[in-house]
Amino acid sequence: MPIVHSDRISGSIYVIATSAEAAQRMAFDYLRDTSKDYHVFDREEDASDRLRDAFRAHDERERVYAVSLDIRVTDEK
């Protein structure tokens, strides 16, 4: 899900991390500054491929976490 300027962002991003808390921090950092990697991906397949990359240094505890987003303007009544 590419991040674009709009009134709504919904969907999932995928984060390589060692825990759900770490995935949360990395997702927030990524949303604040999309110019850096943060091991955040738009597609689950891309995150899984990077996790399995034999040439990438990684922690054996790392897994791919899905972070669901539903950022929207609140309904006005």
Structure in words:
The chain has 77 residues and is an alpha+beta fold. The chain has one domain. It contains 2 helices and 3 strands; from the N terminus they run βαβαβ. The longest helix is centred in the middle third of the chain and has 13 residues. The protein is elongated, with a radius of gyration of 14 Å.
Give the neighbour order of strands across the main sheet.
2-1-3
| Average pLDDT for all residues | 87
N-to-C CA distance? 30 Å
Oligomer: single chain
The outline comes out as elongated
Portion in strands: 25-35%
Question: Could you list the spans in which at least 5 consecutive residues all have pLDDT below 50?
Answer: none
What's the total number of strands? Answer: 3
Elements, N to C (H/E): EHEHE
